[in-house]
Design goal:
Blueprint lengths: L2 H28 L7 H8 L1 E2 L4 H16 L9 H7 L30 E4 L4 E4 L8 H18 L5 E5 L2 E5 L8 E6 L7 E7 L2 E7 L4 E4 L2 E4 L2 E2 L4 E2 L4 E8 L2 H14 L1 H9 L5 E6 L6
Antiparallel strand pairs: 1-3, 2-3, 4-5, 5-8, 6-7, 8-13, 9-10, 11-12, 13-14
Pfam families: ApbE
GO molecular function: metal ion binding; transferase activity
Catalytic activity: L-threonyl-[protein] + FAD = FMN-L-threonyl-[protein] + AMP + H(+)
């Protein structure tokens, strides 16, 4: 192996370590399941001043995405999520007794207008009783950050993947661009189609993965803010190809909540985006 190849390998290993640190820092800042995270402190107190740049940027991005999607993507759905049963990390759902949050009968309905930002002080104010969740958009943002670091080090061919959200650059080894297999979300087997992506991101939202029984009803984590209930409109999954991972993640959720026709129409209005929808019969639309 040439000295140049060895140096490239060492740089790549350093980038992997850097990526792990970026993800760990994001988790400590943005996870609602860590009681000492910045997000948990905001939800507990309703106000935070001089928030970290990462936290403020993520909340600000969430509000912008809420405006873009006309409120279909809404970061203030946390009460509705917990009411549906998603009140602990998904690995624990089904293994523990239901938490108190799942027994709430009333809660503040979602509205991104409950969040007020002051950019000069990097302060965040929540309306009384409002709480926010940043799960998907935070994951997308961090994947994009890691991709930017990789590109900044001169690497053109790369893939960053986190829980199904992917940012792709350059070429897959031996391929022209990247090939991404789309799995059947009903059977969790087989490939429905293969996407070809040269530069950009892929994200999928599905009602068939993160789901659980609450009482005798099947629930999942995709909440329609218009009803505060898990969405049920005949779609099983939506995959989006978009310029950034954060945008792809938000648009996948939005299109799934809007449903087949309205979702297709909304995505058609977004620049450089593609949408793939799968119904409850496993058919690719």
């Amino acid at each position: 192996m040439s000295s140049e190849s060895k140096a490239t390998k060492l740089r790549a290993r350093d980038l992997v370590s850097t990526a792990q640190l970026i993800f760990r820092h994001a988790e400590l800042t943005l996870s609602r399941f860590l009681p000492d995270s910045e997000l948990s402190r905001l939800n507990q107190k309703g106000y935070i001043e001089q928030s970290s740049p990462l936290f403020f940027e993520c909340v600000n991005a969430a509000l912008k995405m809420a405006e873009l999607t006309r409120g279909i993507f809404d970061p203030t759905i946390l009460d509705a999520l917990e009411h549906a049963g998603y009140d602990r990390s998904f690995e624990q759902i089904g293994t523990l007794a239901p938490g108190l949050a799942t027994k709430m009968n009333t809660f503040r309905p979602p509205s991104h207008h409950y969040v007020e930002l002051n950019h000069a002080r990097r302060s965040i104010q929540l309306a009384k009783g409002a709480r926010i969740d940043l799960g998907g958009i935070a994951k997308g943002m961090i994947v994009d950050r890691v991709a930017a670091v990789i590109q900044g080090q001169g690497f053109k061919d790369f893939m960053v993947s986190a829980g199904g959200d992917m940012r792709l650059g350059g070429n897959q080894p031996g391929k022209n661009g990247w090939e991404v297999d789309m799995q059947n979300p009903i059977t969790l087997e087989g490939t429905l189609t293969t996407l070809s992506v040269t530069e950009g991101a892929v994200a999928t939202s599905s009602t068939t993965r993160r789901r659980w029984l609450k009482g005798n009803q099947l629930h999942h984590h995709l909440i329609d803010p218009r009803t505060s209930e898990p969405v049920n409109n005949g779609l099983a999954a939506v995959t989006i190809v978009a310029p950034t991972t954060m945008l792809a993640d938000v648009l996948a959720k939005t299109a799934l909540i809007l449903g087949l026709e309205e979702g297709k129409e909304f995505i058609s209005q977004q620049e450089n985006c593609r949408v793939y929808m799968i119904d409850q019969e496993g058919r690719l639309v």
